[in-house]
Automatic annotation (TrEMBL):
InterPro entries referenced in this protein's UniProt entry, alphabetically: ArAE_1
Gene Ontology CC terms: plasma membrane
Annotated family: Belongs to the UPF0421 family.
Transmembrane feature ranges: 20-46, 58-78, 84-102, 132-150
Subcellular location: Cell membrane
Protein name: Aromatic acid exporter family protein
Membrane topology: Multi-pass membrane protein
UniProt cross-references to Pfam families, sorted A to Z: ArAE_1
Keywords, in A-Z order: Cell membrane, Membrane, Transmembrane, Transmembrane helix
Keyword Membrane: yes
Broad class of where this protein is predominantly found: membrane
Amino acid sequence: MNDIWYKKIIGARTIKTGLATFLTAFFCLALDLNPIFAILTAIVTIEPTAKASLKKGYRRLPATIIGALFAVIFTFIFGDQSPFAYAFSATFTIILCTKLNLHVGTTVATLTAMAMIPGIHDAYFFNFFSRLLTAIIGLVTAGLVNFIILPPKYYDQLESSINTSERKMYALFDLRMRQLLLGKFTKSAPYRQLNALVDINQKVETLLAYQKDELSYHKHNDSDWLRLKSLTTRSHTNRLFITHLSNLVYLPKDTIVTFTHDEKLAILYIAQSINNIYTTGHFERQPRHASLLKTSVKGLDEFDENQIKSHIIYEILLIYRILDHRFAS
């Protein structure tokens, strides 16, 4: 309970952003420095993982230096009341950051340059080095906060998203099989459901990458790596399932396939067995019905009028094999 109480209120990342902002402002004010630039840097440095914060912070610091340098240079040339100072500072900051592959720091660097210009006046060296110092304070403070305070754990989100994905993909497979057997396609619903599945799976892949980064930057028990490996395996299996399911959803328009009575029963039994996985927790295999479909597809010519039927049965058997392998004892 203590591990998740904050997630139901505002979230760990929000807490860390607030703490990093407070500490950054505190350090800057203690040094009699304007905290605004350091705070901007700290806020954007709080990333979903400590690794991302350190990696992007490594690029944001030189980008911020570039922005501050151009602000000083073009303010010296045009003065702080000239629109040219703003235009050239922004343009050259973006160009150089792009050339040096500092894309993640471009926005902060440009904002820093724009905010600096009105207050530079004649104190060019002081403003440049004070902005450099405040940027370092913001980056270091936010990086340490993100590394030490409330290290993110995405296991619960991963479990929830993977469970949702499996429930939806099993149900969609069952629905699509019944549509094929009845010869009645409702395109809109399966298409929307499939797109939702793809979105969920992409979210899972992102969370897996985040959690892997966290485990590589913090000391964890072997059980954490085993849990991550288990979730990764489930995610990869689901991705394969969704790939073959999409081939059954995106069929040519007005597809009509004629199945024998035994083939229909075999497909229905397999579809029902797959749909029951989410509620029962195991895969009730249908070896006799799978064998019937294998025998059936062997007798079809893939390049005559049975091409679509052959394709559909192949996809069903591939999905069956994926689940058979996953639930193998």
